[in-house]
From TrEMBL:
UniProt keyword terms in alphabetical order: Capsid protein, Cell cycle, Cell division, Metal-binding, Oxidoreductase, Signal, Virion
Similarity comment: family membership: Belongs to the multicopper oxidase family.
Descriptive protein name: Multicopper oxidase with three cupredoxin domains (Includes cell division protein FtsP and spore coat protein CotA)
Keyword Cell cycle (UniProt): yes
Low complexity: compositionally biased ranges: 1-23
A GO biological-process term: cell division
Residue span(s) of domain Plastocyanin-like: 56-170, 227-289, 354-470
Organism: Georgenia satyanarayanai
Residue segments, region Disordered: 1-35
Residue ranges of coiled coil: none
Lineage of source species: Bacteria, Bacillati, Actinomycetota, Actinomycetes, Micrococcales
A single MF term (Gene Ontology): copper ion binding
Length: 486
């Protein structure tokens, strides 16, 4: 490819064809975990907190002596952690220095559709974009990543992702470890596949995307994190394009699951496994004994009745991150027994029920069309979305703008890990997921939000639809006008 296009894409005639180096040594888990820096920001005279993100190409040394071409924000790989508090107005000045257009989507954020960073807000090569919005949702671990039409997998795979942490007063008072990089650790888990000469490749024997042979956390392969406190909070993000993870520890210890995609659970859930499909997040609190160590590991996944479990890495056991406790640990607060008293949405209030079936790699029989509006939602209403995966392969389902609650899975009440606010949910083949959500504040009949499978090759292939939110009485549009929409 060209210098701005380092990845080996499927079908690239110049690309190497052997994706895996069988001689690659097992990592020793002695590499200090890289912690993405907290992004600098300035508060301007209007009180807006302003961040800068520059999309750029560079190289990264994932292994000694090998320089790999990568993309990142404000650096060579991944991006800084953005952090803001509920009630703040934020703005992000995005500059694109790549040789092609990209976009930056704020995954999990409630914000106006013009600011969402989806495929209708691409930033041209050399261009800039300055979205601004009010942070108006509970504390949560969100993230940002590109969303250019048909190229999301490539941009994310090359390294363009970062966390966006939201704070609020409620989450400050429930005893969670909160010193960033010390006892509050971002854990962006990704798998990558390398060519023999150490470049990232998207070549894959699986049509759904890359099942990488190398696992990395925040870009570090074989990472160790020193723990200096009795409890440590891990903000887990599945930043992979295809692979799911079923996290646990090698000594099978239990931990407290305290938050899902949209923020705190009603109460901590004591468990020894948490499964995350691409795009999902979970916050866990792990207790450590002085001088002890444990390995965060991904165990075989519970993906349901898929046709090719091996092809989706469902049977893999993979070491992820070693935690090593110091001989003396500073005391940590005890996590409160109740975390969030967020009022749950009531199905009786739902104005509309919609059904979404994923089948044949299409959504309700159609593939994504930038000019077609698939659903029209009235602002300030509650809706139930019923989602089914009728393909014999894994899919998940992500909705922009809102956090939803899970009403039921196959008619049964949701398990504890699905008891909080979510924006992405795994959809097992043959199961039915009833989700409830409320669309508030922002209406624009000409600018859609997306919903899609977050297995990024599926998304790029067209397993995505568009909805607009409109004021009551607005004539519902079905197509979008003008150039730039195709
Ligand atoms: Cu994380 Cu529409 O994406
Ligand atoms: Cu999918």
């Amino acid at each position: 490819g060209t210098p701005s296009d380092p990845v080996v894409v499927p079908g690239d005639p110049d690309g190497p064809t052997d994706p895996v180096d069988p001689g690659q040594p097992e990592p020793d888990f002695d590499q200090p975990l890289s912690i993405p820096p907290l992004a600098d920001s300035v508060v301007d005279e209007d009180g807006t907190r302003v961040f800068q993100l520059t999309a750029q190409a560079g190289t990264t040394s994932f292994r000694d002596g090998v320089e790999t071409e990568t993309w990142g924000f404000n650096g060579d790989f991944l991006g800084p952690t953005l952090r803001a508090r509920r009630g703040e107005q934020v703005a992000v000045e995005v500059t694109n220095t790549l040789g092609e257009s990209t976009s930056v989507h704020w995954h999990g954020m409630h914000l106006p559709p013009e600011m969402d960073g989806g495929p209708h807000q691409e930033v041209e090569a050399g261009g800039t974009w300055r979205p601004t919005w009010l942070i108006d949702q509970p504390a949560a671990t969100l993230w940002y990543h590109p969303h250019p039409h048909g190229r999301t997998e490539k941009h994310v795979y090359l390294g363009m992702s970062g966390m966006f942490i939201l704070d609020d007063d409620e989450a400050d008072t429930v005893g969670l470890p909160d010193e960033y990089g010390v006892d509050d650790i971002p854990v962006i888990v990704q798998d990558k596949s390398f060519t023999e000469d150490g470049q990232l490749t998207m070549e894959s024997p699986v049509p759904s995307g890359v099942m990488g042979e190398a696992l990395m956390v925040n870009g570090t392969i074989g990472a160790v994190q020193e723990v200096t406190t009795e409890r440590v909070r891990l903000r887990l993000l599945n930043g992979s394009t295809l692979r799911s993870y079923n996290f646990g520890f090698d000594d099978d210890r239990s931990f407290q699951l305290v938050a899902s995609d949209g923020g705190l659970l009603p109460a901590p859930h004591e468990t020894n496994r948490v499964q995350l499909t691409p795009g999902e997040r979970a916050e866990i609190v792990v207790e450590m004994e002085p001088g002890s160590e444990t390995m965060l590991r991904s165990y075989p996944q519970q993906l349901g009745e898929i046709a090719d479990p091996d092809g989706y890495g469902a049977l893999d056991t993979l070491d992820v991150l070693r935690l090593e406790a110091a001989d003396e640990l500073a005391p940590s607060a005890v996590v409160a027994g109740e975390l969030s008293d967020h009022e749950r949405l009531d199905e009786a209030d739902a104005a509309t029920t919609r059904t979404f079936v994923m089948k044949g790699l299409a959504l309700n029989g159609q593939r994504m069309d930038m000019n077609r509006i698939d659903e029209v939602v009235t602002v300030d209403t509650t809706e139930v979305w019923v989602v089914r995966n009728e393909d014999p392969m894994p899919h998940n389902f992500h909705i922009h703008d809102v956090q939803f609650e899970v009403l039921s899975v196959d008619g049964a009440p949701p398990p504890p890990e699905l008891s909080g606010r979510k924006d992405t949910i795994y959809t097992e083949p043959g199961r039915e997921y009833r989700l409830i959500m409320r669309f508030e504040h922002y209406a624009n009949p000409e600018m859609p939000y997306m919903y899609h499978c977050h297995l990024l090759r599926h998304e790029d292939f067209g397993l995505m639809g568009q909805f607009v939110v409109v004021e009551p009485g607005t004539e519902p549009p079905t197509t979008l006008p003008g150039p730039g929409h195709d």
